[in-house]
Design brief:
CATH superfamily: P-loop containing nucleotide triphosphate hydrolases
Bound molecules: adenosine-5'-triphosphate, magnesium ion
CATH architecture: 3-Layer(aba) Sandwich
CATH topology: Rossmann fold
Number of domains: 1
Distance between the termini: 20 Å
Number of strands: 8
CATH class: Alpha Beta
Order of helices and strands: EHEHEEHHHHHEHHEHEHHEH
Largest sheet: 8 strands, mixed
Strand content: 15-25%
Length: 290
């Protein structure tokens, strides 16, 4: 089976981690062996799901669903170990403070290492990745663009040799629509939607991929409009004002949805669930993600 890679991005706080977890859970229930990866040095899902630990090495948290946390440094370290083979030598190299500082400032190097690891399955490069599907809880919009730009930056800087070749093979995987899928999460609100549309344009124009939009926290009210409007006649009461607020929200949401349709072909709507138990929330979201 060809491995699939799903990238989940969007403005800060819009629900990327929850949507990524729901996608991962959904695929695992389809019988796929799934790896959910958080990028960065802190795991949100560790606390969210109350897990003992989330590390570079994946741990199974549900049947067929493993979770890992990858930083640029940890991916680079593994890559170097794979190249150098001798662990002690790689250790010597990485535990050097000057080297550490260099790695973290060399433009795009941590990002390149992360993408190298993420795409290592389809590229058949590096330690085995025994998963059918990798779901990446990726960075927010701006940093995500920088992440995707890293391989072409490197390919331009070093045109020959293994680094250039690897960068080009990473780009090929990222642009292969059968392998790499992009999900932009947004709230049905002006600013996040504007940011999402801009990122969508960038992905289409500069990257030649077609991202889908996940509109998250959509207010769903199972009250007929007439009842809502009846309640609105109760002026001077909280209920009347609340009904007015809800109707305005619904009208705005409709506008936002129409606006989103101009930028995205694929749009999924995920309701705002009044659910505080994390796994229950994710299970409800599973029914709504693409
Ligand atoms: N559809 C939903 N219904 C109800 N609550 C939700 C929904 N989606 C996300 N949430 C809640 O919203 C909060 C933010 O979600 P989440 O942490 O997934 O966002 P994020 O985009 O990953 O944030 P960050 O940018 O900080 O990584 C969480 O507390 C989560 O439980
Ligand atoms: Mg998050």
């Amino acid at each position: 089976m060809q491995q699939e890679i799903h990238f989940v991005t969007g403005k800060g706080g819009v629900g990327k981690s929850v949507i990524a977890a729901a996608l991962a859970l959904k695929f695992s229930r389809q019988g796929k062996k799934v790896l959910l990866v958080e990028l960065g040095d802190q795991s949100f899902l560790k606390d969210f799901f109350d897990l003992a630990d989330v590390t570079f090495q994946p741990h199974e948290i549900k049947p067929n669903l493993s979770l890992a946390l990858w930083t640029g440094e940890s991916c680079l370290r593994e890559y170097a170990q794979y190249l150098i083979k001798v662990e002690s030598l790689a250790k010597l190299f990485f535990d050097n403070a000057v080297m550490k500082a260099f790695i973290n400032i060399a433009p795009g190097l941590p990002e390149l290492a992360m993408l190298g690891k993420i795409t290592s399955g389809p590229r058949k490069y590096g330690p085995a990745m025994n998963f059918d599907c990798v779901v990446v809880d990726a960075f927010a919009t701006g940093h995500f663009k920088a992440l995707l730009a890293a391989p072409s930056g490197m390919a331009q800087a070093v045109q020959i040799g293994p680094m250039g070749e690897q960068s080009r093979s990473i780009i090929r995987v990222l642009q292969d629509q059968n392998i790499s899928k992009y999900h932009i999460v947004s709230l049905p609100e002006e600013l996040p939607l504007k940011e999402s549309a801009e990122l969508g344009e960038y992905l289409k124009k500069d990257f030649a991929v077609e991202p889908g939009l996940v509109l998250n926290k959509v207010l769903e009210v199972n009250v007929p409009l007439t009842s809502l409007q009846n309640a609105e006649t109760l002026t001077n009461s909280d209920l009347g004002m609340f009904a007015q607020y809800i109707e305005q929200q619904l009208t705005r949401q409709k506008m936002m949805f129409d606006q989103a349709k101009r930028s995205f072909k694929d749009i999924s709507k995920v309701p705002l669930f009044f659910e505080t138990e994390p796994w229950k929330l994710v299970e409800k979201v599973v029914e709504k993600v693409p």
